[in-house]
Amino acid sequence: MADLSYLKAAVQEMEAQNLTWRKYTLQSPSVPHAKVNGKQVLMLCSNNYLGFANHPKLKEAAIQAIQKYGAGSGSVPAIAGTMDLMLELEEKLAKFKHTEASLVTQTGFSANAGLIPQLVGEGDLLISDELNHGSIIDGVRLSKAERAIYKHCDPSSLEQVLREKAKPAKRVLVATDGVFSMDGDVAPLDQLYPIAEKYGAIFYVDDAHGDGVMGPQGRGTIHHFNLQGKIDVDAGTFSKAFGVFGGYVAGKKELKEFAYNKSRTWLLSASHPPSIWASVMAALELLEAQPQYLKRLWDNTAYFKKRLHEMGFDTGRSQSPITPVIVGESALARKLSQRLFEEGVFALPIVYPMVAKDKARIRTMMNAELSQEDLDFALEKFETLGKELGIIR
Ligand SMILES: *Cc1c(COP(=O)(O)O)cnc(C)c1O
Predict the structure, then answer these.
(1) Cα of 312 to ligand 1 centre, how many Å?
(2) What does residue 315 show for φ and ψ, rounded to 5 degrees?
(3) What residues contact 367, with CB distance under 8 A and at least 6 apart?
(4) How far is the centre of ligand 1, averaged over its atoms, from the C-alpha of 214 (Å)?
């Protein structure tokens, strides 16, 4: 065997800089009252915004699909046939998104990493928000197109890049997250889209944290801005508010056909276990038929943000159920997270290099299933520990 001591050295170096992940074992479903490392805690860091991951309807749909179709799909769809259940989901999702078509992909990550490098190539220009998700960044890196970034959520910066660089390019693609995962802010699509349109650019929105959260019935950030039918690519995930797993791209029929035949992550990797499609369809049905989940998520979000703000915490520029509690130094964020955990609140620190060195934070994710009592419990802990650690007065 080769000498792998450099692996150990690399991790040790990260440890010395406080950059490795502390390991937590989840010993229960990902629900508000969860068991982590043997301890009963209030879950404030799950992406399971609506509680669908453990919803009886989603579980029942999965069980039935397993009975009928088995545990696995058998292959890559293009090679051994696409299961009708997946096609049914694609149709339902396209209806939900008000697009002509959709393609279900293995994950949100793979949707971006597989499709972006195919949409634009040599002689083209790819423009990305400076804070886009890593899966967009990896898609950009795989493309042979020229690359540029614009300042975070800044329409005038996007316009400047387009003015300076668009002309010689054959094709231009502008990519942005819908909701940004570290700050919870929302891309101003209503201002970005007209600029992209003016330059004839393809507009690509990855709405992983907006799906099931933003817009009427959780149809996403594009719907929030009433831009349905205008955005070329609506990509996202079923692993967050939908509570399941998997990704998608939605848009025109030719986009689907192109992705089907060109996206390498899609073509060279098997499709989901059928139970996943069944559960995602159940999630779609709940979103359309039962507005109370979304309402509770946003009511909880408003209350939690307001109270944190009143206590004097810096919650940044969030406009979504992701609320960062920005404390500054990485060590302080880690300390606060550790103390919260000891007191029964599970919320993890996000530190450099994921965010700027002086913007380390606890990232809290709101959940529709948290009760008033739960919220007050968490808030009281934040207040006491914020004072204990000198973050608030
Ligand atoms: C979480 C996330 C992804 C990854 O989605 P998966 O389906 O879990 O791979 C992609 N893009 C953004 C913006 C995300 O926040």
Answers:
(1) 31
(2) -105, 15
(3) 32, 43, 44, 46, 48, 49, 50, 51, 297, 300, 321
(4) 15
Domain count, the chain: 2
Judged against a pLDDT cut of 80, whether residue 18 lies above it is answered with no
Q: Whose Cα sits closest to atom 2 in ligand 1? A: 208
Pocket of ligand 1 (CB under 6 A): 107-109, 133, 135, 177, 181, 206, 208-209, 237, 239, 247
What tokens were used for 15?
């440890």
Q: Is residue 231 part of a domain?
A: yes
Summarised one tens digit per residue, pLDDT across range 223-275 is 999 999 999 999 999 999 999 999 999 999 999 999 999 999 999 999 999 99
The CATH code of the domain that includes 248 is 3.40.640.10
CA-based nearest residue to 195, from 124, 123, 127: 127
Distance 108 CA to ligand 1 centre (A): 5
pLDDT digits 0-9 by tens, 22-59: 899 999 999 999 999 999 999 999 999 999 999 999 99
Q: Are both 82 and 160 inside the same structural domain?
A: yes
Given a cut of 90, is residue 357 above it in pLDDT? no
Assess whether 35 and 115 both reside in one domain: no
Q: Considering 261, 289, 317, which residue would you say is the last residue of a domain?
A: 289
What is the structure's pLDDT at 353?
Answer: 82
Q: What range does the domain containing 24 cover? A: 19-48+291-388
Same domain flag for 44 and 73: no
The pair phi, psi for residue 23, each rounded to 5°, is -95, 130
